[in-house]
Amino acid sequence: xxQIALAEVSELSPGSYARxxxxxxxxxxxxxxxxxxxxxxxxxxxxxGRLREAIQDAGRAxxxxxxxxxxxxxxxxxxxxxGRIDTAREELKAAERLWPGTISVQDIQxxxxxxxxxxxxxxxxxxxxxxxxxxxxxxxxxxxxxxNIRQVTSYLPGNRxxxxxxxxxxxxxxAEFHQENELxxxxxxxxxxxxxxxxxxxxxxxxxxxxxxxxxxxxLMNAAGVLDYWRESGxxxxxCFEPDLPYDCKKVAAAITA
Length: 258
What we know:
The chain is mainly α. The protein has helices at 2-11, 17-30, 35-47, 51-64, 69-81, 85-98, 103-115, 119-125, 132-142, 146-154, 164-176, 180-187, 196-199, 209-212, 216-224, 226-233, 249-254.
């Protein structure tokens, strides 16, 4: 039963990439048209930077369950976070026609516009997501002055920095406003080593492309534990094959020890 494999994955500790891959690959092989398996596997693939495959699984799930706004939301999110912004926008328009005004559609409208669309529209849709951090981020997106950027990237107090969502939001904001060196200095601190597996998915998103082009990114992936998975499985992340990447992933990885 696929539910058993998914239950096994849900019980794994963060960073158990090889075990998660084992259960999910076997589940998909046995049940290639199971929507839950495809959605779970897509999320895992996003965690390890295999974005094209994640989009394929999420898209297949949406085909198999076309009446589910939740499954469509996952597909739209996967498209956007996988760098397929225009396709995500078209799928969002389709969802708006199918389920106009629903909470599910408003949620994906907000999340898409928060980072890739119109920040003013995201502001109008923020609802229960509103708060000082969000307000500062949207203000900086609308008016990216040095002071607005400083406010958003210095807002989070130190006693919240180990909350996964707070750290993930900060990482995306710093990359959005081209503070890559500062982000490396933050995430490479030993105190954040155990946090990395909880936020790793955001590090493969479009806004962090320049961040990934620094070879220090593989040091970070080593600290997160995913570098061992790439080396041992041979399933390297998509960004390693970008033609303008200024380093060779496999050569740099070979020089890194745990």
